[in-house]
Batch of 4 targets.
Target 1
Amino acid sequence: MPIHTISIIIPVLNEASIIEALLTHLSQKATAGNISEICVIDGGSNDQTVGLVMKFSKTSPIAVHVFSSERGRAKQMNFGAKKCKGSILYFLHADSNPPNGFDALIISQVNKQKLAGCFKMKFDSNHWWLKLASWCTGFNWRVCRGGDQSQFITKDLFEEIGGFDEQYTIYEDNILINELYKRKQFVVIQQWIVTSARLYQKKGIWRVQYHFLMIYMKKWLGGSADEIYKYYKKHI
């Protein structure tokens, strides 16, 4: 059985308020030997994000690198995938904290030939709707998927698919997930990743939920990457 290591890829833009906490969480919840590196891909932050990552890297038990790339999550994550050396890529949003032992859980699935997947996800909120939405993520249904649940995928499979579609400024996670479901290559690990409800709290739960549904429908009806992005910028 091959020995796998994980490269964690985190796209960021002005995340100074949370990036240190995330890096600390990752170093405490994983076994250093399972992680090749943590690659933070900055899309042009004008706050202290980059400096804080560099400071953390000096004392981290896991190798931490920070790179600058063109702005846009798809571009940033593809850039990170090219820079990283792990046999498994783990794409993580800066406001999502994976469970204890997430690295071993991912490697265990890959060793079972489950080459891609995510964790079930819950928000850091007690609102009943967000709790219901969180519960749904435990099912391996395409409609329940999203980038906040994180995404692991072997590097070989990622390269075979062609990475994230850089036409998409948003919805790029879903495009990749669609490809994985077509290949029947997706598993939901039954442990919780906890993600921030900050967008819902800032914009309003029902407003955000409605507009995300509209984005999903626009894509299903054939909307272009540009149409979807313009709708997102206008309403969210």
Target 2
Amino acid sequence: MSDPTRFLVVLDADSTLIRNEVIELIAEEAGRGPEVAAATEAAMRGEVDFATSLRARVETLAGVPVVALERVRGRVEPTPGAAELIAAVHERGGVVGVVSGGFHEILDDIAPALGVDLWRANRLAVSGDALTGQVSGPIVDAEGKAATLAAWAEDHGIPRARTVAIGDGANDLVMMSLAGLGLAFNAKPLVRAEADLVIGPVDLREVIPLLP
């Protein structure tokens, strides 16, 4: 674990590891897609507090049957190059983590299928066979993402300088500034302006030449 060649790559999930915004897919199941999509866009641009916005969006999901999540999982599409990037990190002795303002209910299926080593996300509260419209436990916000990256690096004996953070939204900026290299990917203008580097094509293979 102390091998100095090891490094950590941490990705955001929605619109980074995967092409979708999962909360929007769930909202479509509830027939509330447009309002949730607009709120998501504002949060990602940094116009509203992420945790406040997430709670408000999740409230609109109250009553959605849990079985609808299986349909959502079937609609999720990995971003082009995701599997190749993860394989390249592993070939070089690195570790891949995903930290998301989205939901474990979806990420627990996607992350292991893609070969991700570590992941953390929010959890949706359930009563009976339906969503309650609440988030269960602390919300994974910008500070939570950064703290997770720091904890994973420490757990694996990886210096902060050998960490890479990849994200698209305003809630990724703290994590990106903490990492040795912060990459804006498929990103909003605010994130592009503050990142160390901007990846233009929406293809995660573009990150491979930048690996430590």
Target 3
Amino acid sequence: MWFYLLSPLFRKVFKIKAYGSEVLESKEPLIIAPNHRSYIDPPLIASLSPEPLVFLAKKELFEGKLKNWLFRNMNSIPVDRSKADFNALNEAVGRLKEGCKVCIFPEGRRAPQRGFLKPKPGIGYLVAKTQVPVVPVYIHNSTEILSSDNKHFRIPKREVIVIFGKPIEFGYVEDSPRGYKKVANLVMEEIKELSKKVKEYL
């Protein structure tokens, strides 16, 4: 129902325009790495994928039997953001090795409406353990649908632009905090470069 009915409706209602999303049609595992400014970003990315994505999400979203069941059935992995949650990261590593596509927000939490946060090393850990390519993604205007200061859905006045970059092949990555940080910083820089292309699509 999501992929054949709700997903197209979601994209139309919220004026979502994607560029380069054909990269998600790959049959190989991928690490999808978007910036993060809105509560709506996870379902927004999911609506653009032709197959279910695995998401890493803060553990608070899983509190309560109903929400735990819901988010688990949405292919989400709970992450304890108060520490380096290697249990969650290793679960994501396992899913990548099974051939899944995993979406992780490098910043780890929502950034200011028009800014970026320093990336967390988690994405570097996934790359070091799997050598799976990373697809940088820039999401523009998603705060017009749902923002931190307004918990109600809104129909955006402007289009929500999503730009997918080309997969980054890292090959060997030093399996250490230094190596993880290096990957995270590089991915974040690629996302920032994509943000500069938004004017081409407005």
Target 4
Amino acid sequence: MPQVRVIGDDGSQVGILATRDALAMAQAKGLDLVEVAATSRPPVCRIMDYGKFKYEQNLRARKAKKNQHQMQLKEVKMRPKIEDHDYDFKLRHARAFLEDRDKVKFTVTFRGREIAHQDLGYKIIESIMQDLADVAIVETPPRTEGRTLSMVMTPKAAKPVTGSGKTGGGSEDAPPAN
């Protein structure tokens, strides 16, 4: 008759019992006998309400999923002859996307004879890199594909907040002043 190590419903070690006795103990309490470590010798089983356990596990998974942000790729399209106001307007939108933790793809499209002046497109891309250097880094450097020049920027990692900046100016080991 195989034996199992049993952990009670309150987390206490019950001991090594025959499988039949462990099942009877779980059924007497109206709970389930769940194998938690099959590879150990003897296998470890826990007395628990398995339905409630699965429900709480699912609840935790949904809560974790609710708090995470799925990064998206947003695109900002420009032309080589873009005016200052239009450039600023699109840059503000790109900054908002980056602050919302989304990647931004900048595309400069050349039409007709504009393809002969690709240097204008590179100047726009360079100014975008300089203007957004405080919130983003370049993930994919500028490259030309046909009549488009594109670059992808990704948000900078959020800086962790450290608690090393103490106020008060005294030593922790010093006794309090009376």
